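Cast an eye over my tokenised protein here and flag anything odd:

===
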Amino acid sequence: MELKPGLSALVTGGASGIGKAISLALAQKGVFVTIVDFSEVRGKEVASLIEKENMKFHENLRFPSAIFVKCDVTNASDVVAAFEKHMETYGGLDICINNAGIVTTNLFHKDKTDGTSTWRRTVNVNFVAVIDCTRIAIQMMRFKKKPGVIINLGSASGLYPMYADPIYSGTKGGVVLFTRSLAPLKREGIRVNVLCPEFVQTELSSTVNPKLIDAVGGFMAMEDVVNGAFELIKDESKAGACLWIAQRRGMEYWPSPTEERKYLINSRSKGSVTHIKFPNIRLPHSFEKIVVHTLSHNFRSATKIVQIQFKFPIEPQHALVKIIYAGVNASDVNFSSGRYFSGNAKEVATRLPFDAGFEAVGIVASVGDSVRHVKVGTPVALMTFGSYSEFTMVPAKHLLPVPRPDPEVVAMLTSGLTASISLERAGHMQSGQVVLVTAAAGGTGQFAVQLAKLAGNKVVATCGGERKAALLKSLGVDRVIDYRNEKVKDVLKKEFPKGVDIVYESVGGEMFDLCLNALAVYGRLIVIGMISQYQGEHGWKPLTYTGLCEKILAKSQTVAGFFLVQYAHMWQEHLDRLFDLYASRKLKVAVDPKKFHGLASVADAVEYLHSGESLGKVVVCIDPAFSQQMAKL
């Protein structure tokens, strides 16, 4: 839902804390607001502030742009009267924020009364009233037959236990599952979501032990909570969603798609779900693959195509996968030169020949005993050595189930996962920062710029050429620096004199120096590669960076290396996140338009990537005939 003047919202508990902040933020968009609260003095004060904000959007109104209704949300008659007053004033209800909440001051098992004025009231305010307000809001939205958004305020303590106040924690946990169970209302145009912030500095949090607040990283900024509420209002794909906001982790939806799949049951009637049936795979007697037969940074001379006989039966806990698309990476030349193996040149040479290729998508052709999470016909992604092959045998535990084995999915693997995980783990990315991405129009850069924008940051990106600059602008980059037309150093010095907060760096060499010099105080520079140093007459030579320690010490900066293999335990979780963003059209995936077909074209694809002319992710279609057959489904 687009937040625009003329919409109306009702906010319970709107006279203070989070409710007041959201109400004022809505007013800044020209939204009419009804403040529902027990405190008449503060409620009228907030309503007055909202009217002042609204003056710049509305002139000569015949009705107030904000009203206050005194209400005890545990009193059903009061609640009905508040909603009716809103409808009478504004003629409809677009947004309902159920924010009213209280804490208990004593543990419930020490209460010797009937609990009416203590824990029982907490249950009524925090949970029963939310149900009641949600019920009435749904009825009013249905009556007007207009789309509407309801946001219920949960809490991080509804996701994990808060031992100091189990009643509060329990009510918020109830709000979370109550809200998530209302996802089907989206079919009627009504979206109900739950917002779960950690501690914000309000009167409510003043009763919490400061040690607990310190343990989770301190108070959050109220602005982050407001931004979370606005995301749930604006994003039409979110229904029954739970947005967790934490000082330590930023914004993330809970549970992750991986966790949700463990228990989610498809309750739709038989026949209502469309299942994609992939073509049957006929196994030949042999297949081809690319192996490294001699160590060299020249991928073409280091590799050759060999014929392999199938060996049956399939090993237990393994699966045979038919590769459809394989991804090309700058590091292919490092792998072919033996850089990723420990030991000296002679020791590495004893491994020859070894399989080439890092990532692919395909279809499970056969499985061994004890394989449960995939079966024949399942589309999968894999990131194991040997993806430049028509078929590959891998431990089934390494397979990542995917919706379809498409080239866009290949792009999400090494490239997408590197961006997603490194910005979170090595960059500790939050919102409101300046993020610089080098080689931004490449396979991984395209993800880094978009994820940084989605997190609410200003993004600066470097590239070479008009086509690449145009792609980056279409991805929402705030400042594109085309180094063929302007000097990166001059732009950064002039336009970002205070420096950038995070650098996502994959070029190395001179570019690394420029980025380090442009890093702000407390800045973090993430090294995910150094493509400029991979190719050359003698291959990759380590460089020395004199004064590096002195530079980062003087400004409390961090230079963090990132190697994707060491984060394998996070692959599925982040891949699911990327899928969700792609499916909801929040994330675009650029695949280079140049076509590479068959294993014989892999060396051409690797050289094309290193030519500097590629745009987006370079992908090789291993079996064009099979991909065309799938495209007809």
Observations:
- Residues 119-144 form the longest helix (26 residues).
